[in-house]
Design a protein that fits this description.
The protein has helices at 17-30, 39-48, 54-67, 69-78, 88-101, 108-127, 161-171, 274-279, 320-330, 408-420, 428-433, 468-498, 506-526, 540-547, 559-568, 596-603, 607-618, 624-634, 641-650; strands at 132-141, 184-185, 194-205, 235-240, 250-251, 254-255, 260-261, 264-270, 286-293, 304-314, 332-335, 351-361, 394-401, 452-459, 503-505, 556-558. By secondary structure, it is of the alpha+beta class. Helix 3 crosses helix 4 and helix 9 runs antiparallel to helix 10. It is built from 19 helices and 16 strands. Strand 2 (184-185) and strand 3 form a beta hairpin. The two termini are 57 Å apart. Residues 327-459 form the Pseudouridine synthase I TruA alpha/beta domain.
Length: 651
């Protein structure tokens, strides 16, 4: 602002033109040293001093929003405000700065009353006509590339899935910030864990403006959010204010047909193709599968009825029927504190319900169409014979439950694999579930995180909408990745198979076995075993004599024959092969971790940890009835598609 306006508007001013010009001149003179005074400051001053009537100001604001958006953006830039800011924090900052600039013009009381006026006008401008709607997104991600799903807000080194996801959402201008979109997630996966059907929900920008109407002549027939398209294919015909464009665009050589009435134009609007928009910005390791509109109270976490996990593994030498027996013992409601990592600052109830747990063979080819079979989850598929498993076949543990504890699936996998390798009996599962007798979790490692997949998140009513172009693109991309990895695995298998024809000296094989058995038995003795006999094979010397023949000391044997002999001593060339000389200590004989009660007593010694415990557990703890009522309400939340259909049918 370098000087007063060169013209005066008598229309709408409650004082004569000369008085207005005098007042404006005073403003410019008093602010000649202040370059931060904006046209909005002048407008606000005129309102406060009643130089301009409120009716004219209201009309001006409406005109700015509807017909002069370009000019409105210029004013916003003059105020150094972010283009997309709509939250109250930004508004408050602007108000404070504006009030500061008018210090010499108004009294404190006038400045205070002016703040609310500017806040309202400013919020109206920045909010404009953007509509948001509650959307659930279903997506896939390869967890091997990320530090986990959850974002560590404020950490520059964060490599989470959510950080990448929100970067794409903000770049597409579908959300303004994580805090303002009411974000919720279904399952929180850790570092390296993948998901085939993760679900998140948030408020996303809609293609239909908030001031869109069904009729030509006003705001008395505004389009409700419930009437918006439920997919990106359907469209609705509404009346909207035209967007300011730099040049007229043509589609298929013909100008868009519009009808103007009271400043509005009629337009057929489709919802944004959220999946396509985001997939164009996301890396190949994260893919949006589909979306659906959801109710206002829907929560991706609390509205979920069940979660399905799959843990993939190679059959190898596992006893699959025993693994299935151990999984069956896990079904039902149990206290799983010995099958998880306890976080007592956040969790106090370790009871969870597993609806089904079974071993399933991974299909190597496209399955043939067949009638679905009823499966109560207490056994494997009828088509799978666990006794005839090939060591190279791929299987997975499929576990369905309402909710899970921290590292629960990986703990379960580690224990049942011990059973599968013959190191533990299936009954150890029952003993670990008896927390009264087994106080404190035995020390055992977690199963590897990479084979774990959150396969599906299930809800009472959530029909996710998929588009053919998106699924086609995704299928082609995933098939290409599968082909690359399959061919890489085939090359490795070819190399492994080529080793079978190699020959070694029997004496070399005997020395190798002797060294391994001696080391293993020495470890067994240190662990408290009194007999120097290997638990997996016959007596040491007797077995080695079958390998080494004094009459043919220089004879050779193929590597394939050597592997058969080594397997009799439980020396198997798999992921545990390099550890084959280690001694397994039974789970119930291992050292125990601290109990839940001991952990709670310990954290109370720290003021910070005690406060966190009280905030997360004590204050939020609810009665059984309150929990039941809460989850009954939340699990009924879901898609708004059925509600839309019901409304149409009733009308």
């Amino acid at each position: 602002m370098t000087g007063p306006p060169q013209h005066s508007l008598n229309d709408g001013f409650s004082q004569p033109s000369s008085v207005v010009d005098t007042k404006l001149s005073e403003i410019f003179q008093s602010s000649s040293q202040n370059t931060n005074v904006t046209p909005l400051d002048v407008l606000q001053y005129l309102v406060d001093t009643k130089i301009v009537t409120e009716t004219i100001i209201q009309k001006s604001i409406v005109d700015i929003i509807r017909n002069n958006r370009k000019e409105s953006d210029t004013i916003s830039k003059t105020q150094q405000k972010p283009k997309t800011a709509t939250n109250s924090t930004t508004t408050t900052t602007t108000t404070t700065q504006t009030t500061k600039n008018r210090t010499d013009m108004t009294s404190p009381k006038t400045a205070t009353s002016s703040s609310s006026s500017i806040s309202a006008a400013d919020a109206t401008k920045t909010a404009s006509n953007i509509r948001t709607r509650h959307i659930a997104l279903k997506f896939f991600y390869d967890g091997s590339h990320y530090s986990g799903l959850a974002q560590n807000v404020g950490q520059d080194s964060d490599k989470s899935v959510e950080r990448v996801l929100f970067a794409a959402l903000q770049k597409a201008q579908l959300v303004q910030s994580r805090d303002s979109c009411r974000y919720s997630r279904c399952g929180r996966t850790d570092r390296g864990v993948s998901a085939a059907g993760q679900v998140v929900a948030m408020y996303l920008k809609s293609a239909v403006p908030i001031d869109a109407t069904w009729q030509q002549d006003g705001d008395d027939a505004l389009v409700d959010t419930a009437d918006l398209p439920t997919n990106e294919r359907d469209s609705i015909r509404v009346w909207v204010y035209p967007r300011t464009k730099k040049k007229k665009r043509q589609q298929q050589g013909q100008e868009e047909e519009t009808q103007k009435q009271n400043g509005r134009v009629v337009k057929d609007i489709q919802e944004y193709p959220y999946a396509k928009m985001l997939n164009n910005l996301l890396p190949p390791s994260i893919r949006i599968l589909g979306w659906t509109p959801v109710t206002e109270d829907f929560s991706a976490r609390f509205s979920a009825t069940t979660r399905l996990y799959r843990y993939f593994f190679c059959a190898r030498q596992h006893n699959l029927p025993k693994i299935q027996s151990a999984l069956t013992l896990l079904q039902g409601t149990h206290d799983f504190r010995n099958f998880c990592k306890m976080d007592v600052e956040k969790v106090y109830n370790f009871e969870r319900k597993i609806l089904s747990a079974k071993v399933v063979k991974q299909q190597q080819t496209y399955p043939k169409p067949q009638q679905p079979k009823v499966d109560n989850g207490s056994h494997c598929n009828d088509d799978v014979n666990l006794d005839d498993a090939n060591p190279q076949d791929v299987y997975y543990l499929e576990i369905l439950g309402q909710a899970f504890l921290w590292h629960q699936i990986r703990c379960i996998a580690e224990v049942v694999f011990m059973v599968g390798r013959g190191l533990e009996d299936p009954s150890v599962v029952t003993q670990l579930l008896d927390v009264a007798q087994c106080r404190g979790k035995p020390a055992y490692p977690l199963a590897d995180e990479k084979p774990l997949v959150l396969h599906d998140c299930r809800y009472h009513d959530l029909p996710v909408g998929y588009s053919v172009p998106n699924l086609w693109t995704l299928s082609c991309q995933l098939e290409q990745q599968w082909e690359d990895h399959t061919l890489a695995a085939a090359r490795l298998r070819n190399c492994i198979d080529s080793l079978r024809s190699c020959t070694v000296h029997k004496g070399d094989l005997k020395d190798f076995c002797s060294a391994k058995l001696t080391e293993r038995n020495r470890k067994r003795q240190r662990a408290g075993y009194t007999q120097a006999m290997d638990v997996f094979g016959p007596v040491h010397d007797a077995f080695l004599s079958t390998i080494y023949d004094n009459d043919n000391a220089k004879s050779v044997i193929t590597w394939e024959e050597s592997l058969q002999l080594l397997k009799q001593l439980n020396f198997v060339p798999d992921s545990h092969g390099l550890d084959s000389s280690s001694v397994h200590v039974p789970l119930l004989e291992r050292s125990r971790g601290t109990t839940y009660e001991e952990k709670v007593a310990s954290l109370k010694k720290s003021d910070k940890r005690r406060q966190k415990y009280e905030d997360n557990v004590i204050k939020k703890r609810k009665t059984t009835e309150e929990d039941a009522a809460f989850y009954e309400h939340m699990t009924k939340q879901g898609s708004t598609i059925q509600e839309t259909k019901s409304t149409v049918e009733s009308s």
